[in-house]
Amino acid sequence: MDLYFFSYTGTCQSIAKELGSLLKSTPRAIKTYKLPYFLWLIFSFIPNLQVKISYEKPTSPYGVVIFPKWTFNCPPITTFLREVSFKKLLLVICYGGWREKPYGEYYKNLALRKSKEVKIYYIKRASWERNKASELERLEETVLKTFGEEG
Ligand SMILES: Cc1cc2nc3c(=O)[nH]c(=O)nc-3n(C[C@H](O)[C@H](O)[C@H](O)COP(=O)(O)O)c2cc1C
Question: How is domain 2-145 classified at the architecture level of CATH?
Answer without folding.
Answer: 3-Layer(aba) Sandwich (3.40)
